[in-house]
Specification:
This protein has helices at 156-162, 172-178, 232-250, 267-276, 312-322, 324-328, 342-366, 403-409, 412-436, and strands at 9-13, 16-17, 47-55, 59-66, 73-77, 82-88, 91-92, 106-115, 118-125, 129-137, 146-153, 211-216, 226-227, 230-231, 254-257, 281-288, 300-305, 372-380, 392-399. It has 441 residues and is α/β, with parallel strands linked by helices. Strand 8 and strand 9 form a beta hairpin. The protein starts with 8 loop residues before the first strand and ends in a 5-residue tail after the last helix. The structure holds zinc ion. The site of zinc ion has 6 residues, from loops. Zinc ion binds at residues 217-218, 224, 232, 286, 321.
Amino acid sequence: MAGRANPVVLLGIAVACTAAICCLPGAAMTGSETQGAAAGTGSDFPIASEVRLAGDDKRTRFILDLDKNVQFRAFALADPYRVVVDLPQVTFQLAAGAGSSGRGLIKAFRYGLVMPGGSRIVFDLAGPARIEKSYVLDAANGQPPRLVLEFEAVDRTAFVQLLGVENRPELRPAVAVAEPVTTAPAAAISAAAIEATGTTKTVEPVDKRPVVVIDPGHGGVDNGTQAGGESEKNLVLGFALALRDRIEKAGKYRVTMTRTDDTFIPLGDRVRIARNQAAALFISIHADALPRREGDARGATIYTLSDKASDAEAERLAELENKADAIGGVNLTEEPTDVADILIDLAQRETRTFSNRFARMLKNEMKTTARMHKHPLKSAGFRVLKAPDVPSVLLELGYVSNKSDLEQLVSDNWRSKTVGSVAQAVDAFLGRRIVSAGPAN
Ligand code: ZN
């Protein structure tokens, strides 16, 4: 993470311009015009049915067919060069693989839900570029409404000047809907800290059960790893929901999810949710993949936070997972995760001891039901594990790049057994921890 300023700028606000098919010369690259018709989504969200790229590395045009007009907002991010377009919630019915390769100034793009009610398209640019024009064409002459973005190459100096006007992607409010964001005090570790959140929120009845935060990785624009037609974001969501149900059914702990659907959540917000809940435990769920040339690793691995990675693979993985914010188009400079308070430092040390203890318990439980990696306990600088006062682990369930791991990851039987062992470890950890944190201390 380069420490330089990384501001964003509003490049264009939607104006619905009327008609003018002449705006779309040579844009026809239609491949599968056939399956665009509404497949009964049961909602009123606009449907994006087709996407095309046209142009070259000086000028590139992006065209998205919709079934109704939308308002949108676009802004740029540097290092790497990206353009982010925020839309109201859109149902994407694009061909599989749309956006995985680009054309001209656009290297690739991703799209998906970024918050309830909001979708996002993130463009990876081949170099510095600006949106020269952006507009929505009304439906006309049998053509659907179209969102059109015209990218133009600029040099870096011009790009950086464009970034001068401060304007933030409005992610925060949507997250706040789910979990009121307050700046939690650097409370000392205590299992009883549930009452001490210090907020004015009084609506909920007091529930003193310890809170477990379950964090399915990735989501929305960020697919995570992919193999065999499976996305990490979906696999881990399914696992996390099953784990939530299992823990809630036992009734001893409260569970908060960082996401329950295909929504992008920035890493900092995941950490904040855990802190605001004064969670007793934070479990981030992922599934790894190895590039073919790096061999065929398999099995589950449990990661904890450390300043120094335990080995090269842990370092590679932390780097990859920490990229989630860049993938989702989040401005990293607005994430005040690095807290330099000495009290926090002390709490953090204690928290790490708890995190490591839980990691060991989890390994012992999991190995009875799931195949573990040959080195199942590792550590590295994962941003999502940085709550100074919440014991946190990141569980990589296995490798989607390994054939038999993938078979297990999609198997209901495997999931049920493994969820059971994770729930068992949670119970063993929290049961013991409540005793050790009692008044005798
Ligand atoms: Zn992941």
